[in-house]
Design brief:
This protein is an all-alpha fold and 86 residues long. It has a domain at 2-60. The chain has helices spanning 2-12, 14-26, 42-47, 54-57, 67-82. α1 (2-12) crosses α2 (14-26).
C-alpha cells in the first residue's frame, strides 16, 4: 500500500492529493449501509457538527436557482387556473 501512495504522490503531486483528501473528507454520503451516515460527511461524523458545502469551504460560491423561476411558475399556474390567457 505504501508503494502505491508513493507512486501516486510522484505521478499526481502533493497539491492534487491534498485536494482529493479534502474532497473525500468533506463531501456527504449519498447512500450508506448505515442510515445514520447518509447526508453527512466523514468530517461531520468525526466532529459531530455540520459544515458548509466543500466548495464553499474552498471559497467558491455555489450556483443556486433564482427565486424568480419559482415565482414565475406559480404565477403562470395561477393565471391558467383563473382562465386568463398568457
Amino acid at each position: 500500500m505504501s508503494s502505491m501512495k508513493f507512486f501516486l504522490r510522484r505521478t499526481l503531486g502533493n497539491d492534487y492529493l491534498d485536494l482529493l483528501r479534502f474532497f473525500l473528507n468533506h463531501r456527504t454520503f449519498l447512500r450508506s449501509e448505515h442510515p445514520e451516515r447518509e447526508g453527512k460527511s466523514p468530517t461531520q461524523l468525526l466532529i459531530g457538527e455540520s459544515h458548509p458545502h466543500w466548495l464553499e469551504l474552498l471559497g467558491f460560491d455555489l450556483f443556486r436557482k433564482p427565486a424568480i423561476i419559482a415565482y414565475t411558475k406559480s404565477y403562470c399556474q395561477n393565471k391558467l387556473i383563473i382562465g386568463e390567457r398568457l
